[in-house]
């Protein structure tokens, strides 16, 4: 029996983080719901036991159903006929099994038939599912749309649509258009209020919509005439039963073939406004995108884990020159680096998820009562951290996911290039992670604000003050040195006072900072569990060397260098 | 006289049924060592199963049986699924898992007096428990993967003087008086109609069991037998009073009115004479190439030695 929860000790480790106690207590409203619902936990231990039991069932579904289906799903892809998109048979089976197991709507409140799980837990589920089949994790994770409905929509919409999630109704976030990809402010799909039928009507084209034919669609549209920027955009809910959208095509893609990517034509489609007009992009979609980026973080970690496991297995079975190939330095170096990268991004993933949980829980608490000063400060503190950690996570997790799947093929050699082994599918699936939900380049744009403001550095100083076992001190000294050098580079750039050069170097700066932060996270993990000491060492050595290289590049970078790059413009 | 009594009892059961509209299904489920993934320490030196080395699981065919019962429940109003398992106290986990997957409740038949039972003694004990529940239908797996006898189900049907259908693969239809079933046989399928009360044994090719349901699991994870809670040193009086659905009832020989002489070793005519640990070794080997004449030769030899044909 394959079980993707029980066979992965890292998941249990991250479940044991001390901050979870506060998260669960707040999420369960001090365990008062157990009086009303017979499946609600009555204390922290009971809640953790419930989480583990659910993860165990899901782990088995991942290992015994979803993963074995993945190869056929990839081959079969999706089909479009009579304006209906059909999933591959395996995808349909995955969906039915999860529906039967009552696993949809994990994060929703119990009054909407959910299980009221914290974000940290649903992210762990997303990671396991992505390890089994990354394309299915897209369909699964789009449930996050329900969070947006829950947070911002009217009671009427909430009561109508949220209970459907548990029943297995699917969702999609309909944002991108042919001329509005990274730049969502340029969205043109038109929304106008139809007085006769007392609802909004949508007209226009959307492109590259994952799971575009979903039951419940959140659509970003221009509700304000004669506007061209974000302030003219609102968020709408379109119900597929209204049958007013044409699926013009489904894309033929490099990877994640089990998840349909659709081009949609809205033809006077009736829709309901979510929240307030003009807040569509600025507030609701930004919040949705942040959740989705966390989801891609989870998908990247899951995919990388899958790639590492097949590579590890192969390296320990394949013999050349009379030895297992894992005994050759170039191979074991690759494997150890893969392991370190995965441990690093997983730690960053759950750190970010906990921040998101904390700030969202305070926010929802603040709607029912006024918070005291200390609580308000905590809310702001965690919100700031969630804001700066989310792009860092998306950047690192998706880039490492690509690197790890690339190396996983390399370890397989020619065999890995063949369709006979799953690793080539993992490599193809990985390629989208650093593109959708904001490219890596856009994550840098979001993250660089935390560099300029000193917000990341502030967090690093907090990490510096945390106590560690004495034997970890030498590694910490490297991180202290990396931080000092980073500050020096920032000082140099400030002194140079050249915004274009700063902009040019921004990715290097964000990556330098990421290496420091992940280094500290792995040190803290090592402090709680000795098993992480090796990966902490591998990661910090690698990060230190990379930071030296970037530092060298930045320090003597001149205006003439910049000009050389710009000749290509 | 004995036979007459059972016929009389069967008539009485039918008469009483008219006044109790609930359709009761008993599912028989067994906890077994997982013999499908056998490692090198699966057997002890003396050739008996090393239960410690093998995880205890829900007998696979019994899961198919539970699914059949759950599908009937979906088709028929007012149906109750009661799981009965016979085994040591830890077999309570089989009852819990059944409830997580959709069964309504369960009884654990547990008593030291049952130890060492062969299929005759087991079917006697189970039939006594089933009489107490008085169901319309009994569904069990074809066979358990530890003994592989496929005898317990048929023996229970005989003892209860009920019709039985073995090797069931699919329920075609069901109404108040009868059901239509497909049996999976060696050389095809057979469709039969069956009146109630009756017993089915379900083939492993039947529909796989639905997964554990998250909410049911979180609601019933605290369901325990009294002895489980005693072992954990927990006070159970309040728990069971407040949440009666969390009590998994245990029945011993006395509770089901079983005669001691018919139980355990004394009730088991099957005696193990000798267990031989057979280690297969290769004595000789022959190599055939893929050439037509070699394949012909191979077929001839296989036919001559009656390996095939």
Secondary-structure blueprint of this entry?
The complex is a heterodimer of chains A (569) and B (309).
Chain A: H1 9-15, H2 20-27, H3 44-76, E1 79-81, E2 84-86, H4 89-100, H5 119-132, H6 134-141, H7 145-152, H8 155-166, E3 171-174, E4 190-194, E5 199-210, E6 216-222, E7 233-239, E8 245-250, E9 261-273, H9 280-317, E10 319-320, E11 323-324, H10 329-368, H11 373-412, H12 414-417, H13 423-430, H14 440-452, H15 455-465, H16 473-496, H17 499-504, H18 506-528, H19 533-555, H20 559-566
Parallel strand pairs in A: 3-6
Antiparallel strand pairs in A: 1-2, 4-5, 5-9, 6-7, 7-9, 8-9, 10-11
Helix pairs in contact in A: 2-10, 3-4, 3-5, 5-6, 5-9, 5-10, 6-9, 7-9, 9-10, 9-11, 9-13, 10-11, 10-18, 10-19, 11-13, 11-14, 14-18, 15-18, 16-18, 16-19, 18-19
Chain B: H1 2-17, E1 23-28, E2 31-33, E3 56-58, H2 60-75, E4 79-86, H3 92-101, E5 105-109, H4 119-133, E6 137-141, H5 152-159, E7 164-174, E8 178-185, E9 188-195, E10 198-202, H6 214-220, E11 224-225, H7 226-231, H8 237-242, E12 247-251, H9 292-304
Parallel strand pairs in B: 1-4, 1-6, 4-5, 5-12, 6-10, 7-10, 11-12
Antiparallel strand pairs in B: 2-3, 7-8, 8-9
Helix pairs in contact in B: 3-6, 4-5
Describe it for me?
The complex is a heterodimer of chains A (569) and B (309). Chain A is 60% helix and 11% strand. Chain A has 20 helices and eleven strands. In chain A, the strands form three sheets. In chain A, strands 3, 4, 5, 6, 7, 8 and 9 form a seven-stranded mixed beta sheet that branches. In chain A, strands 1-2 form a two-stranded antiparallel sheet. Chain A is globular and about 70 Å long. Chain A has 569 residues and is of the alpha+beta class. The termini of chain A are far apart. By secondary structure, chain B is of the alpha/beta class. Chain B has a single domain, classed as Rossmann fold. Helix content of chain B is 31%, strand content 22%. Chain B contains nine helices and twelve strands. In chain B, the strands form two sheets. A ten-stranded mixed beta sheet of chain B has the order 9-8-7-10-6-1-4-5-12-11. In chain B, helix 3 packs antiparallel against helix 6 and helix 4 crosses helix 5. The relative contact order of chain B is 0.15. The mean pLDDT of chain B is 89. The chains are: A alpha+beta (569), B alpha/beta (309). Chains A and B meet through helix 3 of A and helix 6 of B.
């Amino acid at each position: 029996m394959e079980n993707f929860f029980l066979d992965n000790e890292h998941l249990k480790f991250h479940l044991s983080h001390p901050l979870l106690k506060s998260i669960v207590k707040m999420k369960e409203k001090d365990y008062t719901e157990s009086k009303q619902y017979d499946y609600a936990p009555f204390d922290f231990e009971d809640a953790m036991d419930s989480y583990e039991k659910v993860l165990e069932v899901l782990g088995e579904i991942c290992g015994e159903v979803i993963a074995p289906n993945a190869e056929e799903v990839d081959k079969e892809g999706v089909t479009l006929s009579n304006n209906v998109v059909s999933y591959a048979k395996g995808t349909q089976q995955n969906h039915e099994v999860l529906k039967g197991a009552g696993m949809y709507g994990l994060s929703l409140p119990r009054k909407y038939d959910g299980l009221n799980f914290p974000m940290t837990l649903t992210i762990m589920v997303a990671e396991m599912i992505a390890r089994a089949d990354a394309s299915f994790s897209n369909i699964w994770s789009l449930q996050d749309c329900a969070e947006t409905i829950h947070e911002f929509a009217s009671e009427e919409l909430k009561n109508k649509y949220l209970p459907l999630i548990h029943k297995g109704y699917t969702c999609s976030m309909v944002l991108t258009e042919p001329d509005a990809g990274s730049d969502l402010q340029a969205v043109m799909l038109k929304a106008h209020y139809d007085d006769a039928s007392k609802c909004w009507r949508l007209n226009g084209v959307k492109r590259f919509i994952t799971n575009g034919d979903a039951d419940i669609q959140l659509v970003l549209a221009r509700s304000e005439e004669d506007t061209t920027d974000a302030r003219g955009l609102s968020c709408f809910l379109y119900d597929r039963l209204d049958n007013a959208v044409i699926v013009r095509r489904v894309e033929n893609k490099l990877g994640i073939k089990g998840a349909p990517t659709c081009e949609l034509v809205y033809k006077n489609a009736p829709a309901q406004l979510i929240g307030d007009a003009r807040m569509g992009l600025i507030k609701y979609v930004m919040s949705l995108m942040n959740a989705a980026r966390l989801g891609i973080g989870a998908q990247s970690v899951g995919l990388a884990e899958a790639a590492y496991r097949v590579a590890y297995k192969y390296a320990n079975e394949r013999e050349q020159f009379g030895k297992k190939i894992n005994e050759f330095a170039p191979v074991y170096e690759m494997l150890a680096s893969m392991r370190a990268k995965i441990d690093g991004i997983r730690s960053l993933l759950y750190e970010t998820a906990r921040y998101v949980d904390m700030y969202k829980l305070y926010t929802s608490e603040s709607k029912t009562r006024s918070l005291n000063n200390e609580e308000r400060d905590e809310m702001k503190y965690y919100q700031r951290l969630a804001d700066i950690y989310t792009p860092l996570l998306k950047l690192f997790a998706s880039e490492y996911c690509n690197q790890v799947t690339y190396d996983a093929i390399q370890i397989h050699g020619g065999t890995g290039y063949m369709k006979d082994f799953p690793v080539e599918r993992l490599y193809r699936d990985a390629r989208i992670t650093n593109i959708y939900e904001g490219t890596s380049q856009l994550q840098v744009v979001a993250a660089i604000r935390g560099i300029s403001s000193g917000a990341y550095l502030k967090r690093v100083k907090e990490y510096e003050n945390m106590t560690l076992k004495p034997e970890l001190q030498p590694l910490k000294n490297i991180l202290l040195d990396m931080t000092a050098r980073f500050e020096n580079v920032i000082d140099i750039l400030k002194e140079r006072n050249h915004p274009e050069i700063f902009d040019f170097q921004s990715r290097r700066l964000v990556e330098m900072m990421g290496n420091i932060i992940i280094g500290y996270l792995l040190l803290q993990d090592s402090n709680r569990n000795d098993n992480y000491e090796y990966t902490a060492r591998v990661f910090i050595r690698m990060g230190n060397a990379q930071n030296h290289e970037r530092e060298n590049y930045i320090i003597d970078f001149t205006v003439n260098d910049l000009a050389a790059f710009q000749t290509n413009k | 006289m004995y036979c007459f009594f059972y016929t009389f009892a069967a008539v009485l059961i039918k008469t009483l049924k008219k006044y109790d509209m609930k359709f009761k299904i008993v599912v028989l489920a067994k906890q077994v060592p997982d013999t499908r993934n056998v490692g090198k320490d699966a057997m002890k030196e003396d050739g008996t199963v090393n239960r410690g080395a093998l995880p205890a699981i829900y007998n696979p065919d019994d899961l198919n049986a539970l699914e059949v019962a759950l599908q009937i429940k979906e088709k028929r109003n007012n149906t109750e699924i009661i799981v009965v398992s016979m085994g040591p106290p830890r077999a309570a986990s089989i009852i819990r898992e059944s409830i997580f997957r959709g069964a309504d409740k369960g009884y654990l038949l547990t008593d030291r007096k049952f130890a060492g039972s062969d299929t005759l003694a087991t079917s006697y004990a189970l039939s006594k428990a089933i009489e107490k529940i008085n169901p319309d239908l009994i569904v069990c797996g074809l066979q358990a993967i530890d003994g592989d006898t496929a005898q317990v189900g048929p023996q229970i049907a005989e003892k209860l003087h009920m019709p039985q259908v073995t090797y069931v693969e699919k329920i075609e239809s069901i109404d108040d008086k009868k059901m239509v079933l497909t049996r999976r046989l060696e050389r095809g399928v057979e469709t039969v109609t069956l009146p109630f009360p009756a017993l089915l044994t379900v083939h492993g090719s039947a529909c796989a069991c639905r997964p554990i349901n998250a909410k049911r699991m979180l609601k019933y994870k605290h369901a325990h037998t009294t002895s489980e809670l005693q072992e954990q040193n927990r006070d159970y009086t309040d728990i069971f009073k407040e949440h009666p659905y969390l009590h998994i009832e245990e029945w011993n020989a006395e509770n089901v009115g079983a005669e001691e002489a018919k139980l355990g070793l004394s009730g088991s005519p099957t005696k193990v004479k000798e267990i031989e640990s057979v280690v297969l070794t290769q004595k000789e080997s022959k190599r055939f190439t893929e050439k037509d004449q070699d394949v012909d030769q191979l077929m001839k030899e296989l036919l001559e030695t009656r390996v095939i044909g």
